[in-house]
Design brief:
The complex is a heterodimer of chains A (about 290) and B (about 260). In chain A, about 40% of the residues lie in helices and about 20% in strands. With about 290 residues, chain A is of the alpha/beta class. Chain B has a two-stranded antiparallel ribbon. The chains are: A alpha/beta (about 290), B mainly alpha (about 260). The complex binds adenosine-5'-diphosphate (ADP) and magnesium ion.
Chain lengths: ~290, ~260
């Protein structure tokens, strides 16, 4: 589903001494089916922004559109439940939302709230559990007996079981081990491709933004700082450093090679091995002439 | 965080009221609460009202913010007023509403009782508005110090208070976070039949308890790891000291009290 923000502003606790303008002047459009990375320093308003996507927050000013749904300050009733069925949100540390006695029941919670039939729920439990890489014989266990990483996977399965069209991920891999991080990110990417989802990923990992996203939104102090294709955004090292962000190491290396040795290699998601071979051949080629 | 609830919320600031020793504030409020029940004339009420509203003014916290935050209390104040107006039968009949006589004594009674109530709430909420929970517990510990002689666990009590106060905002944030997560999974906390709404509490409460217990365990472990062993011989990072300001304010308050007693009838 297409997502668009039109001059959105959000103020926490308006008209009080704690009033805080968390986002302002935010306008962008995300075409249906794209994978967007939202990056920015802590406190730049990323989490606030994504909470508009399923109507947890309603803009103080401006309009948010998700597919045919519209969220606006003065509009009375948008069917939030229907919107939330379409937009699955994986929050930061989603394992904190587990509460049922068994993994099975916890995964079934979302779909049954939306009135999905019992058979369909069973099918979804198995497919989402498989997607997050857990085996079906865990279904009767308590989610509280699992390791942190496994709990995370169960919580994610609970969101996937809603089979949303838009998947919103707020730092979904924070605090996981590197292998777990890659597995989960690969899983989200595969799902995105297979199901034709629209995915919005909030991340602190520039590497992930580069590897998975086809569009980047950079936020700073609640406002749009930059947007564009990952390669275009990451080309602007100084601008990113100015707001406390780094450039992925690979991009930095290629930029250095170009600046210091005059070797230009366009980045096309090559693996480290492929890049090493390329650089090697260029260096040798350069030396022979 | 719930923005409509002012009671118990600290608003940072730099006014005299903020900077007073918390013991001064607690003592003044303690005596104010007692004095309010001694007021019985127009002048004595006026003095107390001026004192309370004046102090609010000095804090620079917008009055509108406080008044709005006292919303749940307004109802009780107004209810008390009408209760007294209709139930008291003293003085002359002023007028009748639907052939129900309203006495002059009733009006005075209604106004004074609800004014007392308002003043009490205003002054006590000002304590929490201008004092961090930590200084309040420090002050209570210091004020209760004499009880230590009677083997009363003052330090432990203060510690329990400050830990609970410290975790109230954390718990509120957690509540908000989890209710948002469950709302995203299709729970509706706001509408639907009561039975459904009661059921919707479970997915909120279970994670809250789980995380509260986990937090308590971690805190206990961290305290033990740092060798915490109770109040004996423990020094304070922030010593409470009475300054000139405190003495001036106390002197002024004694003047007000004297004024109230002089203008009583
Ligand atoms: N519930 C809230 N009440 C008041 N202020 C908030 C609340 N949530 C976030 N904020 C503030 O809004 C700003 C943006 O926060 P957030 O959207 O969480 O940023 P990010 O996810 O980029 O770290 C921060 O300054 C934060 O302190
Ligand atoms: Mg965040």
């Amino acid at each position: 589903m297409e997502i668009s923000f039109d001059d959105v502003k959000y103020i926490y606790q308006p008209n009080s001494p704690f009033e805080h303008r968390a986002i302002d002047n935010l306008s962008f459009t995300i075409p249906s089916g794209s994978f967007v990375a939202v990056i920015g320093h802590t406190g730049s308003g990323k989490s606030t922004m994504i909470q508009h996507l399923n109507g947890l927050l309603i803009p103080t000013h401006g309009e948010v559109r998700v597919g045919d749904f519209s969220l606006k300050a003065d509009r009375k009733k948008t069917n939030l439940k229907a919107l939330r069925e379409q937009v699955g949100v994986v929050f930061q540390y989603p394992e904190h939302q587990l509460f049922e006695e068994t993994i099975q029941k916890d995964i079934a919670f979302g779909p049954s709230n939306f009135g999905v039939s019992e058979e369909e729920i069973q099918r979804r439990i198995h497919s989402s559990l498989q997607a997050v890489g857990l085996s079906s014989d865990m279904l009767e266990r308590s989610p509280f007996d699992l390791s942190g990483g496994q709990m995370r996977r169960v919580a994610i399965a609970g969101v996937l079981a809603m089979e949303p069209n838009v998947l919103v991920l707020d730092e979904p891999t924070a605090g996981l081990d590197p292998k777990g991080q890659r597995e989960i990110m690969d899983m989200f990417h595969d799902l995105h491709e297979d199901k034709g989802l629209t995915t919005v990923l909030v991340t602190h990992s520039m590497e992930d933004a580069l590897a998975y996203a086809d569009y980047c939104i950079v936020m700073d102090h609640g406002e749009m700082y930059m947007q564009g294709k990952p390669l275009e955004v990451f080309r602007q090292k100084e601008a990113l450093n100015a707001v406390g962000l780094e450039v992925p190491e690979i991009i930095e290396l290629l930029a250095k090679l170009e600046a210091e040795l005059d070797i230009s290699i366009p980045y096309e998601k090559q693996s480290l091995q492929e890049l090493a071979t390329l650089i090697n051949s260029k260096l040798k080629g350069g030396a022979s002439t | 965080m719930n923005s409509s609830m002012v009671i118990g919320q600290y608003v940072p600031g730099k006014s005299i009221v903020h900077e007073l020793d918390p013991r001064t504030k607690i003592s003044i409020i303690f005596f104010f609460v007692i004095i309010v029940f001694f007021a019985n004339s127009f002048m004595s009420y006026l003095l107390l009202t001026l004192f309370a509203v004046g102090s609010v003014f000095i804090t620079r916290i917008p009055l509108s913010f406080i008044v709005k935050g006292l919303k749940p209390v307004w109802f009780i104040i107004i209810f008390t007023f009408f209760l007294h107006v209709f139930m008291t039968k003293e003085g002359n009949i002023l007028f009748t509403i639907f052939s129900y006589p309203i006495y002059s004594g009733a009006l005075i009674q209604g106004i004074s009782i609800s004014l007392r109530f308002f003043l009490l709430i205003l002054v006590t909420s000002m304590l929490t508005l201008t004092t961090t929970p930590i200084s309040i517990t420090d002050a209570i510990e210091s004020l209760l110090d004499p009880l230590k002689k009677l083997r009363f666990p003052v330090h432990e009590l203060a510690l329990m208070m400050s830990i609970s106060l410290r975790f109230i905002p954390t718990l509120m944030q957690e509540t908000e976070k989890i209710s948002k997560a469950q709302a995203s999974r299709g729970v509706d906390f706001r509408s639907g039949p009561i039975k459904e709404r009661m059921k919707a509490i479970v997915p909120l409460l279970v994670p809250l308890f789980v995380s509260a217990f986990k937090r308590a365990e971690e805190l206990a472990m961290a305290m033990e790891a740092r060798g915490y062993q109770g109040g004996e011989g423990r020094t304070k990072l922030r010593e409470l000291v009475l300054t000139k300001k405190d003495y001036y304010v106390i002197a002024f308050f004694i003047l007000v009290i004297t004024g109230v007693f002089l203008t009583r009838q």
